[in-house]
Amino acid sequence: MSGELLYQIALTMVPNIGAVHAKILLQHFNADEIFKVKTAHLEKLEGIGSIRAESIRDFRDFSRAEAEIRFIEKNKIRALFLSDPYYPKRLLNCYDPPTLLFYKGEADLNTSKVLAIVGTRNYTDYGKKITEKIIAGLSEQEILVISGLAYGIDAIAHKAALKNQLTTVGVVGHGLDTVYPPDHIHLVKDMLAEGGGILTQFISRTKPDKHNFPIRNRIVAGLSDATLVVETGIKGGSMITAEMANGYNRDVFAVPGRVNDHKSEGCNHLIKTNKAMLLTDAKQLLEIMGWENKKSYPEVSGANSRFQRELFIELTPDERIIVDILREKETVHIDELNLRSGLSTSTVAAVILNLELRNVIQTKPGRLYSLI
Questions:
Q1: Is there a single domain that holds both residue 351 and residue 209?
Q2: Both 123 and 165 in a single domain?
Q3: Distance of alpha carbon 145 from alpha carbon 168, whole angstroms
Q4: 39 — phi, psi (to 5°)?
């Protein structure tokens, strides 16, 4: 495993090779093969070319990758490569999933309900109270709360999640050998102690430089079913996260503020331009996302009705695969259907459409599907 991991880490360190380029390469080769195959073969790949192929050929810093393996083993950090079964499946549905993630914690990153909460560092009392109120309203649900561990709304969201017994994970823009801001070291300890975690795509000794945070924001957006923006100006990290969430076809919510309040200008703009749904309380969020705890009915009745319905419906082999997956759970996310079915994304989309038209399955908010 460490031999394979060596090349996986090395791939993230090659100059000129970003997440999209790595994804292209990995469609043709395993990580170790990328460093061993002839340069001429690499440069023929669409999107790679001679410059990137030569960057791979010239890479020599495997000792740094070896040092990273020692670091993660010593600190009980998990390295989640794209092909790892524990890799966040929602990110796999993004066009630019991080090639490798470093994760410390116990929270299930593939749990069925994930909410990102972001906002300004310079929050108002209104922003603090509405964040705490919304999270308190989610306390009876099994929702994973994601944020960026920054000052302000991020930290308030993490703390409120802990207070309400909700698992929370911080996504950071630096290596896991440090905590930034340093004031949050105790917050991280509390998050880990309560079954949460801390996640990054950056190797150790990576400083929290400004250009790392938009990269961090894309993970926050892609990792979640929905993103809630509480307070933000018209520019800044929270607006970037909201734009990225929209780009990933995730649901975006924003808490409205006074029209003359600079710290709510971004939220009001998102609502005005239909880039976010106006949100005022947790109940509204749960209803839109379909996350309310539902009354359970006798299993026999549901099983019989589904069995009777399927007696009159002939399913293709591909349709049978999707239906069998949906039979296992009440709802299944599109990312899980894509991953578990083994079918192409376009095939899954076509099968879902056919099954919806035939009233076999139904679409729910948050890109979730269930049998009717």
A1: no
A2: yes
A3: 5
A4: -55, -35
